[in-house]
Amino acid sequence: MAVNEVAADFLELGPIRPPSEAYSLLIRVTRNCPWNRCKFCSLYKGQKFELRSVEEIKRDITAARVIRDEIKAFAWKSGYGDRVGEVAAMVFNNPPSDAYRNVALWLYAGGENVFLQDANTLIMNTGELVEIIEFLKETFPGIERITSYARAKTAAKKSLEELTALREAGLSRLHIGLESGYDPLLNYMDKGVTAAEHIAGGKKVMASGISLSEYVILGLGGRKMWREHAVQSARVLNEINPDFIRVRTLSVNKRMPLYEEVASGSFIRSTDEEILEEEKLLIEHLECSSNLVSDHITNLLQEIEGKLPQDKEKMLAVISRFQALEPAAKSNFIIGRRSGIYGCLDDLNDTQRHEWVEQLMHRIGADGDGVKQEAVFRLMERFI
Ligand code: SF4
Asked: Which is it for strands 50-51 and 30-31: parallel, antiparallel or unpaired?
């Protein structure tokens, strides 16, 4: 396949997208994070925030179309016809550049969704963002969904008319990091947003008709604030009533300011079992009609998912099922899950995998009390 070097160079990519946007076309509309102070976040540390010009972003969108057209043309030339997905899979497995990988994965998945990077797209001038979204839709008329990250504080500062204009242009969903609804914890973590601002921003997004995902970090309160974190997060989420509540679990690496606090002992991390108690308290206090999603690799029990309120008991039953396990089975599951051997509780019944986990536990030094918590954290953080 002919590689368009110019297009491959123009399509700039940021570092992340939410798990639910794994197959979306990534278009970087700003660089890095304008806040960049949260203690639990290492993503953009040391990187300067920058707005990108409309012209630059349009050039990237055009580059994505050039790459898409080349993959499609190659599919016809090589006898695959309209089976573009098969050719896209081949390009994805051996891409000439990250830009080709991005477009190929998107085409492989049907070429329907777009995610606008980086951390707070709403900080752009609303008119310019509308122009970008409209250009995207003109360039790719088949697009079904356009989503992005935003900060609640920025959403709160936008007028309802501005958010509505973005929805009318085609912005389908915003992903906002609530992290917690407990003010002392938000303050401690230097989130730069209060619970009241979370509520104001979240409610405004919902009122505009843009779909809203709010992310909660399980374990963020540590041993000191876990109860208030769970109860106050539920309170804020009940007020916002977002379309989706997405949970992920705190992991800590050396690039995070929180790392030093963990090392000095001023922040004591909760264990997996303690975090499940926290998640139980959170779910018990949720009185909204959101979909709860556990689509993050850091979560111990990814099968805790459902529509509130009707699936609340079903979700709590998953936690109870884990809590009813014998101590040895709990340790085996935690290690199996944290090492990527298990995906869900049912995997405990797979004798082959159970044996692998037992061997791994032996290697990492389990004693009569099970595996040391530090070893569990180390395993978990290999994925992040
Ligand atoms: S606002 Fe988001 S991206 Fe920015 S530092 Fe905080 S968690 Fe990280």
From this structure: antiparallel
